[in-house]
Amino acid sequence: MTKIESIDEATARIESALYSAGRPLKIEDIIRASGTESRTKTLELLENIMKKTKSAFKALEIVILPDGSYVMQLKPEYSSTVKRYASKPVLPNATLKTLSYIAYMQPISSKQLVETRGSGVYGHLKELRQLDYISHQNVGRLKIFTTTEKFQKYFGIQGDVEDLKQRLFSKVRKTASTRQSTPTPQITTEVN
């Protein structure tokens, strides 16, 4: 195999790993996928792939997350466009519930989250931090969680945290009042 063929093969392997993973990948995973066994070479190939993706695609991007992992994803501004076409949810329901709880209760401690959502919350927090939807600060032995700017952009939320809480509260109140005034359950569907 020539040098160009091996570069093309390594590039194809990195692209396929990023595309098929559906989650952030650590650089070590990408090195293994590339078959180069070279961090420098893999980073160089990854940089080229990122440039090509940026110029060739309008809705897709490869980003480096705060923890140093890489993810191929849909740009946040296109998420509402493709919701109805997606074959699986972006986040599992349990993780999404944890995220919504953090959004509503923020700032919230890890202790409060475990008490409310159970010990499975640790996996949810890890996934949400990898996606950069939440961040935390250490206060003594506790971690205090809040949502990030990326969370707000991805979910189309504008305004500050208090505005978000007020909107969530009014939606919950409206849903509760509808249920109380209606003697029989009603099925509603939203079409975007």
Share of helix, binned: 55-70%
Please name the CATH topology of the largest domain. Arc Repressor Mutant, subunit A
- Specify the biggest β-sheet: 3 strands, antiparallel
- Going by CATH, the homologous superfamily of the largest domain would be Winged helix-like DNA-binding domain superfamily/Winged helix DNA-binding domain
β-sheet strand percentage: 5-15%
* Biggest sheet strand line-up: 3-5-4
Helix and strand element order: HHHEEHHEHHEEHH
What gross morphology would you assign? globular
Output the number of helix runs: 9
Amino- and carboxy-terminal Cα gap: 50 Å
Provide the low-confidence segments as ranges: 182-192
Commentary on this structure:
The protein is of the alpha+beta class. Helices cover 56% and strands 12% of the residues. The strands form two sheets. A three-stranded antiparallel sheet has the order 3-5-4. Strands 1-2 form a two-stranded antiparallel sheet. Helix 1 (3-21) packs across helix 3. The longest helix has 21 residues, at 161-181.
